[in-house]
UniProtKB/TrEMBL annotation:
Name listed for the protein in its UniProt record: Choline/ethanolamine transporter FLVCR1
Catalyzed reactions: heme b(in) = heme b(out); choline(out) = choline(in); ethanolamine(in) = ethanolamine(out)
MF terms in GO: heme binding; heme transmembrane transporter activity
Top-level taxon of origin: Eukaryota
Function: Uniporter that mediates the transport of extracellular choline and ethanolamine into cells, thereby playing a key role in phospholipid biosynthesis. Choline and ethanolamine are the precursors of phosphatidylcholine and phosphatidylethanolamine, respectively, the two most abundant phospholipids. Transport is not coupled with proton transport and is exclusively driven by the choline (or ethanolamine) gradient across the plasma membrane. Also acts as a heme b transporter that mediates heme efflux from the cytoplasm to the extracellular compartment.
Pfam families: MFS_1
PROSITE patterns reported for this sequence: MFS
Membrane topology note: Multi-pass membrane protein
UniProt xrefs under SUPFAM superfamilies: MFS general substrate transporter (SSF103473)
Keywords: Cell membrane, Endoplasmic reticulum, Erythrocyte maturation, Glycoprotein, Membrane, Mitochondrion, Phosphoprotein, Receptor, Transmembrane, Transmembrane helix, Transport
PANTHER family found in the cross-reference section: HEME TRANSPORTER FLVCR2 (PTHR10924:SF3), MAJOR FACILITATOR SUPERFAMILY PROTEIN-RELATED (PTHR10924)
Species, as recorded: Amphiprion ocellaris
Amino acid sequence: MSSQDELSHEWMDSLGNCSPRKERTGLGEYGHPLGDDCDTLEPSFVDTAQLFPLMETKLYKRRWVMLFVFSCYSMSNAFMWLQYGIISNIFMRFYSIDSLAIDWLSMIYFLTYIPLILPVMWLLDSRGIRDVVVVGSAFNCIGAWIKTSTANSNMFAMTFFGQFVCSVATVYILGIPSRLASLWFGQQEVSTACSIGVLGNQMGIAIGFLVPPILVPNVDDMTELAYHIRIMFYISAGVATFIFVLVIIVFQERPELPPTQAQAQARSIQPDEYSYMASIFRLLRNKPFMLLVVSYGLNVGCFYAISTLLNRMIIEHYPGEEVNAGRIGLTIVIAGMAGSLICGIWLDKTKTYKQTTLVVYVLSLVGMLVYAFTLNLGHLWVVFVTAGVLGFFMTGYLPLGFEFAVELTYPESEGTSSGLLNCSAQIFGIIFTISQGKIIDKWGTLAGNIFLCIFLLIGTVMTGKILTSAPCPRCNSAVIMLSTWNRTENNTPTLVLG
């Protein structure tokens, strides 16, 4: 529960040190912009800030259950994204298709996201998180069952349709972690919770790298191959069905009492006070955020391209190593999961969003360069090590981007800012996957990886530009505290407990 002493201490920290993380609202239309420096609180603003009484808050243990259920749903969908790509040579032979067709089984996830993200973000803001998660898990389940009937060499069109249905579910996933963290978790937990939400998706990618090469061995007998593919599809469908039922039974919209004062105040805002389109236009005019949108898209687009084309890159230098290609992918993601979690905890402890984002971006570039120039040395253990380093920083950047976006766009909706970030990532994912695939076919993997390094360098420069152009986001931590104060006749702040 909130107390006067705790709030007073939090208020003094906000003004004196300008270090505590601001509380996030999810709607937050009552925030006001401050100056570029932590010392520029305008007296006129202090005198006219909108005032709210303090309200009762509580952290529920079941917040971890909500996070676990969402992570499982995200994990299932991410697995089905990669279940074709990591054994692309097998599916190319099974369906008698070329490499571009098999790449589109992955890229359809990116393409679907682009036109659907705006209506889904609107649905998230207007209907709430539970409806979005239920609908998304339903699409995931339906798509998985469609694919169970496609273990036949002439059923490529149907398996593509099933993959398309699963890709629709992705639109209902990628913007959820930051919103879920704000709705259910306390002020000192949001970055960690967001990282764990992203972690579920990464766990699905890890399983997608590891399991398909085991379940579907590269055998010559097409009947036996069809049997193994069918087994994989039925396992995917069974898991997706169980998670869908779990979401319907367990997942809740929000706790009875809000976890923070900011969420308590957000609940008092009437729906007609919030304009979705106005929020979009404000974000598009936010220069630091738009720089982040592009730089985030470059980084994550590179990760998508590497994930999609990993089998081709490994097989080119290490023929017959489909299983090890999956293990290398697993190494990338497991290292990235550790990076995501460590970055989330680090942000909760230090609040150094700008500096951490830049350092991780630079190290992603370094990791990509090392991976590119060591892939063809002929030693698989070297590839495992360099891929792990690359994954730790490149995948660890994912929750950093979400959290930094919330800092730069406060008090806009977390779902909206996350959606725009992911839209950028999908666009660059398509561009990089097609381009790198063509470059690999013509000039080899080294040229393809250098191609990605160039764009990571551009993203690094843009991230550095954010640091020089963005105002101090933590200044707004004082705003939300000001809104909980009433003033006495002599203009002295006093707390009023609600």
